Structures are given as C-alpha cells and as structure tokens.
Amino acid sequence: MRSFFITIDQGTTSTRAILYDDKIRKLDITQIELTQYYPKDGWVEHDLEEIWLSVTSCVSDLIKNNSLKSDEIVSIGITNQRETVAIWDNKTLKPLSRAIVWQDRRTSNYCQKMREDGIEEVIKEKTGLLLDPYFSASKMKWLKNNLDLKKNSNYLLGTIDTFLVSKLTEGKSFLTDITNASRTSIFNIQDCRYDEDLLKIFDLEDIQLPEVKENADFFGETELFGGKIKICGVAGDQQAALIGQTCFDLGSVKSTYGTGCFLMLNTGQDLVKSKNKLLTTIGYKLNNEITYALEGSIFVAGSSMQFLRDRFKFFEKAEDSEELALDADKNSNVFLVPAFTGLGAPHWVPDAKGAIFGLTLNSGIEELTLATLESVAFQTRELLEAMKADGGEISSIKVDGGMSNNSFFSQLLADTLKTEIYRPEDIETTALGATYLAAIGSGFAKKEDLKDFWKVDEKFLPKNDLDSKFKAWQKYLKKLIEQ
Ligand code: ADP
Question: Does residue 304's CB lie within 6 angstroms of at least one atom of ligand 1?
C-alpha cells in the first residue's frame, strides 16, 4: 500500500497543504492566500472562518488532485503562525471574533504600563520572552475583556494550532504543543507548565487551558476527509524549521530568510538566559526530553529586495538582485542600514529608520544592491555574536527561506560569518519539520533517521574577508541609533 504524509502549514500570508511520499519528498502543494485585516492603526487581524475554510480546501484539493485514500495517509502534521490568538465557542466551535495576529500592537500601552510596574523581569525569568504585545497573553486578555462574553462562558482561547486541532477533531481535542505554548507568556519554560503567577499577572486565571503535548505526540484523529486520519506532529513555524533542518545537535543553527530573518540556535538541555535581548524558547520536546533554543529576529531580510524592486525599480524579480550584486564594485564602500520598520534583535529600536551611507558619483544600482544584501548578512552576524556572548556555541549554520536561493547572498553569509553555510534541497523547511514530526509521531521514523531524509543542495565555504566592511557598517549603524 502507498504511504503519504500531509502537512498543514498555516502561515501569516497564506495556508498551504503539502503532500510528501514515504521518503519525505515533496510531491504536491495547494495554497490559499489569506485576507489581512487592519481595522485600526497597529491592529492586524485574520478571519478565523477564512483560515478554517482555507485549511479544509487545501487538504481536500490535495487529496482529490492526487486521488488519495484516507488510509494511505499515515498522518497529518501541523505547523502554524505563532503567538496569534483565536477565540471560539466550545460547543459549536464557531469563532467568536477575528484572530489577533502576532504583528498586532493594540496592547502596547498595556505592556508599557506593566513594564513601568517592573513586571518585565518576572516575565523574562519565567518565559524567556520579553514583555511585548507580540506574544499571546496580552492579546488573550484583550479578547477576554473586550468581547461580550457574559452570555457565553463556554468560549475557548488558544493559539492557531489549538484552534485547528479542535476543529479537525470536531471538538474532541483541546491541545497545544510545547513550542506554541512557549510563546504565549503564560507558560513557564523552566518548569514546563502554565504558571499561576503569570496567569494572575495577565488576568487569565479563569480561562480553560489546552493540555500541552510533546511535538510528536498523538493530537487526535480527523474524520473530515473521507476516513480517519491521525494528527501526529505539531510545532510553531520557526521551531518546525529547526526540526526541518535537522538541527538536533547542540550548537546547530537554522537561519530563515523570508520577509524577515529568524535565527534559532539549539542550546541542548541548557536553558540559556539572554543578556543580549534574544529570546529563550523551547526548540522541541521529543521522547520526554526538552531541547531549548535561543532565537533572534531581524525585521527586514527578503523584504529589502522587494523594496529595491518595487520602490526603486532596480529590477523586476528578486532573483535579479544576484546578477546586479555580482557586477558591483566590491570596494565601493556604500552601506545600507535596512531599519525600514525599526530594528529588531539585538538592538530593539522600534523608531529607527533606514539609511544609506557612503554614496559617490560612482555608486549605482549594482553597489546599492550589494550594500543591501550585505546589510542582511551583517545583521545576521550581529545576531550570532549576541548568541555567542550569551554563551551559545555555534557548530553549523543551515539556511532556508526565499532569499537563501540567492547563491551570491549565501556566499556573503559564509564570508561574513566565517562559517560554512548549508542550503538544503527543500528550502520549505517549516512544512518539512512538521512532516518529520508526523513521521516520528506515527512510528514511521525515529529522530535519528531524519538526517538521512535531509539533503544538502549546496555548501558555501568562507572565501573573502569582510571583517573591515562589517566594522564600518556597525559604525554607521551606531550613528543611526544614536541620532
Ligand atoms: P515568506 O515566507 O516570509 O513570505 P519566502 O520564504 O517565501 O518568505 O521568501 C520570500 C522573500 O525572499 C521575498 O521577500 C523576496 O524578496 C525574497 N527573495 C526570493 N528570492 C530571492 C532571491 N533569489 N534573491 C533575493 N531575495 C529573494
């Protein structure tokens, strides 16, 4: 009998369902874009009915297009946008409002007030996170306080994984996985349980809390696609990418270059507390063993290429940036700081703006493109240096995301970071990771087998010394921050 896996990748901009064979090779994909709602300044919402419809349509189409029978599907994996909060009715499973998306800043003042009250240290200590509207707890509190829930005490609050599992199992499962739980701000990552102090701080003591499962656990069965199919793997998107890159060894790093850049370092069984404004989080939990990670994010990575393409009209397609950068004068000393939406880790300067330095009459679109690609590599070096300063030891770096397709950029990374860079054949590592988890959870594979499934596409070795350029760029960055 044929064996397949289906993974649901519920992301911020779209929902996808991906079909894999028994060698975990990608066979087919269905995708539906999601409407982004911006009802007020700083508010970002998703329609939960639309999310649910996109999930069922993507999975049904995948099954139909490939003439699959439900008993040929070994199991389903789920990966999702993290931190986003959903609210739905316990009985009817109908959403009670739109989801508040991770980017939403409506609870900024509330978080600021808590910071002034000196609560940030407690939160950092217990959760490894910062006190910021980004994380789920303040959004949960907002929904609880602002919806008229008096008539409905049967509501459920949860992250997107919990919502999807609840819908897929028709209300039988009310579960979350440990990586999604670790981003809520109510989960103590040291003791691995919901924390009563945190629940009190966020006024969430009376909500029903989903049971927290390991990543390759049994999450229930769905009967919505023609027969029973098990759900055996769940992880938040960045953690799924860590698994998809098989970063199971201490010191292994995955760095994802999509719209922004998310870098995650496996710190093993050590919960490393950051003194450099990085986040400490749970990488994964398998076979009763927790692996921790340090995480840093850069707001602008691939979107800088969109910026050059759409605003400056330098090229038609993002991939054309590679040819332009190859033609640039490598000694041009043009520098760019891509702080278009402020600066993320390790600086966290929300009001910073982007800037270009060092222009001469010789500077052209080639040099500016080179400077932009370099700026993303330089920001990555800052993240890695922050991780090293926190005691993290880096053994290998694996890249993924759309921008990693740019071989010139991947080489720049190897040069800037002075480390070998590995790019896998399948750069959609988020979905791959959830599939690996579904394979482990259904007893189809062991964690140790996964390295055989992961295939390298290209390895980039350090060739050029970019130390002095990096230092010059840092000087400009400092100037910009101090302005
Ligand atoms: P997301 O998941 O955040 O939507 P993707 O992983 O799909 O992002 O990557 C898309 C981003 O990568 C876009 O911002 C695009 O500009 C950039 N990108 C894609 N291909 C290239 C390339 N060859 N060179 C540089 N940037 C690229």
Answer: no
Mode of pairing for the β-strands spanning 252-257 and 261-268? antiparallel
b/e sequence 410-445, b meaning 16+ C-beta within 10 Å: bbbbbbbbebebbbbebbbbbbbbbbbbbbbbbebb
Q: Give CATH for domain 4-237.
A: 3.30.420.40
Check if 401 has its Cβ closer than 6 Å to any atom of ligand 1.
yes
Query: Residue 318: CB within 6 Å of ligand 1?
Result: yes
Candidate from 10, 12, 18, 305 with most ligand 1 atoms within 8 A of CB, to mutate: 305
DSSP 3-state of 41: coil
Q: Which residues pair with 77 in a beta bridge?
A: 7, 233
Mutate to test the pocket of ligand 1, among 29, 315, 403 (most ligand atoms within 8 A of CB): 403
Rounded Cα distance, 314 and 366, in Å? 9
Q: What is the pLDDT of residues 196-254, one digit of tens each?
A: 999 999 999 989 999 999 999 999 999 999 999 999 999 999 999 999 999 999 999 99
Ligand 1 center to 368 CA (angstroms): 18
Question: What is the signed CA dihedral for 330, 334, 339, 340, rounded to 10 degrees?
Answer: -100
Q: Report the alpha-carbon distance of residue 226 to residue 248 in Å, rounded.
A: 36
Q: What is the pTM of this model?
A: 0.92
Decide whether any atom of ligand 1 lies within 6 Å of the 303 Cβ: yes
- Whats the size of the chain, residue-wise? 483
Q: Report how far residue 402's alpha carbon sits from residue 407's, in angstroms, rounded to the nearest whole number.
A: 11
